[in-house]
Design brief:
Distance between the termini: 59 Å
Strand order of the largest sheet: 1-10-2-3-6-7-8-9
Strand content: 15-25%
Number of strands: 17
Order of helices and strands: EHHEEEEHEEEEHEEHHHHEEHEEEHHE
Number of helices: 11
Largest sheet: 8 strands, mixed
Helix content: 25-40%
Structural class: alpha+beta
Radius of gyration: 26 Å
Shape: elongated
Length: 399
């Protein structure tokens, strides 16, 4: 018997659902599979949906700066692929776009991810739900990756069941939830999503070989991450910064900054603006980082072993990650060109200094060959050129 969402839900009075036009033929061609009819009907009727005040059902739509259906699928499937690799091989799911792979359709407020298992049938209307549960209750019978013998609408119906209804799968099954449907609050002005056109390769085959294999130094780095036309360093001078610090900085760093300026590498590693004057100048940021380190060191000296600049050999940071890791030098000796690089990892024990220089470190990291705490790594199936890049800043940047 067909179950209709309207049979067990009521629209929210303040945020009623509102459809967003979807070109299903284009979406399905881009995905390489047909989608369940019940999902398409739900999307055509309701648009992006907050279901039961707990599920977000994502449909093909876009809202600038907040959501892009294609990007969300790509990032969700990449994360799932990495997580699934930790499972025993017999329990490991394929992930879309692999044939029969799990295909995401939503998330929950508990950070669970909702998928279809496309391997169960060639008919998408027969696809059943798999949930990547985050922290299922011990003893509940739920697995971290739990397969339910329920289609999308059946699963949603069961999520709003009365507690006495049977059959009841193992565990709480996200319910019972209120039977409310509302426009997703963070997508109030969602617009139709257009599948991206296939992109031409950024580099030729020979350039790719140089970028990822044979190239060295800035020649390889420029191919991995082209520098900006107008690098931004701030309004001061290197001599002025060196005078304030009481030391010059490594020449490799200043030459790199003259080419790239301040900005973010691979959407992860942020290089401070070195020559800004005024309140948020380089030294201001350095002092804040070292002050935070010092306060942690006072309470846990064995976990925070670095000496701190301007002590001899002290840590002098010049970059940070989006997760608050910090990259800097150990200021050992009178020659800054000999200072080793070191990462202060925010969520891991302190490691040894890095072996290479700054440019070699950036090249190895963007190639996916440098694995160390504090610098986000690539998955074995990632194409490094998809993740390498440099976003230049201007005078509006905080760092």
């Amino acid at each position: 018997m067909t179950v209709d969402l309207a049979d067990f839900t009521e629209p929210d009075g303040e945020r009623p659902p509102a459809p967003v036009a979807v070109d299903w033929a284009a979406v399905e061609e881009w995905l390489g599979v047909r989608l369940p009819g019940e999902y398409k009907r739900l999307a055509d009727r309701h648009g992006p949906l907050d279901f039961g005040e707990f599920f977000w059902i994502h449909v093909p739509c876009v809202q600038e700066g907040r959501f892009d259906y294609g990007q969300w699928l790509r990032e969700t499937h990449r994360g799932a692929r990495i997580e699934a690799r930790d499972l025993p091989e017999a329990e490991r799911h394929a992930i879309h776009p692999e044939p029969g792979g799990l295909l995401a359709w939503g998330v929950t407020r508990g950070s669970d991810t909702l998928f279809w298992d496309t391997s169960v049938s060639a008919d998408p209307d027969e696809w059943t739900v798999v949930v990547r549960h985050q922290g299922p209750v011990p003893g509940s019978g739920l697995r971290d990756w739990h397969a339910y013998d329920l289609t999308l609408t059946e699963y949603l119906r069961h999520a709003v069941r009365d507690g006495w209804e049977l059959p009841s799968p193992p565990g709480p099954l996200m319910g019972p939830l209120p039977g409310s449907v509302a426009r997703t609050a963070f997508l109030p002005t969602a617009a139709p999503w257009t599948p991206p056109e296939p992109a031409a390769p950024r580099l030729t085959a020979e350039e790719r070989r140089v970028a990822l294999e044979t190239g060295t130094g800035q020649a390889a780095l420029r191919l991995l991450s082209p520098p900006p036309e107008h690098p931004y360093l701030g309004g001061g001078t290197w001599d002025g910064l060196f005078a304030e610090l009481g030391t010059r900085l490594p020449g490799e760093y200043t030459r790199l900054m003259d080419v790239y300026g301040a900005g973010c590498w691979s959407q992860w590693l942020r290089f401070l603006t070195p020559l800004r004057t005024g309140e948020r100048r380089f030294v201001t940021h350095v002092e804040k980082v070292l002050g935070a380190y010092r306060s942690l060191q006072d309470g846990y000296p064995e976990e925070y072993p670095l000496a701190l600049w301007p002590e001899p050999g002290g840590f002098l940071p010049f970059a940070n990650s989006i997760d608050a890791d910090h990259l800097g030098w150990l200021t050992e000796g009178d020659d800054p060109d000999g200072w080793p690089l070191v990462v202060w990892p925010r969520h891991a024990p302190q490691g040894a200094p890095l072996e290479g220089g700054l440019v070699d470190t950036l090249v190895a990291w963007q190639r996916g060959r440098l694995v160390t705490h504090g610098l986000a790594g690539l998955d074995e199936e990632d194409d490094p050129l998809e993740f390498a890049g440099f976003e230049a800043w201007d005078d509006r940047a905080y760092w």
